[in-house]
Specification:
Elements: E1 2-3, E2 10-11, E3 16-20, H1 24-34, E4 38-46, H2 49-55, E5 62-68, E6 76-82, E7 102-105, H3 109-118, E8 128-129, E9 139-144, E10 150-155
Parallel strand pairs: 3-6, 7-10
Antiparallel strand pairs: 1-2, 4-5, 5-6, 8-9, 9-10
Amino acid sequence: MMMSANSGWRLGGIHHVGLTVSDIEASVRFYRDLLGLELIGRRPRVTAPYIAQQTGYKGVEMSVASFNVSRETHIGLEVVQYLTQSGETADQSTNRPGNSHLCLTVDNLVECHRDLRAKGVQFKSEPVPITAGPNEGGLVVYFYDPDGHVLELFQPPARQGD
């Protein structure tokens, strides 16, 4: 856990990553059926005063699907469709400040890329060998979910004893 230098509180880790989507059903199909993430919860219509207060949107209604990204770390992925007060699609270019990406590890990036591309998933490039830094020897590639969120697949380098 990370302790704040100025207070008695500490961060405990990542609970989940949230993505706002335009079509919850398309996102469920993508993350569950194509990527194989475990769907652990669905809330088709969420309305609660605390959500309106948290988001700043009075009377907001949303649909939420939750996935388990990693059994080892229990980090979740939450996709949210605003049923009311929905906004415009943002430019997800990786060089735009404020944008982010979710990196998922995979044991065979070349095969994963081939399989997902054959199923219609859009990639930014072919798998790229990492030629410098702590992940030298690994492979990496960016791809997109149905809303254009940038996702990354990362195959760690083989290490001695692996």
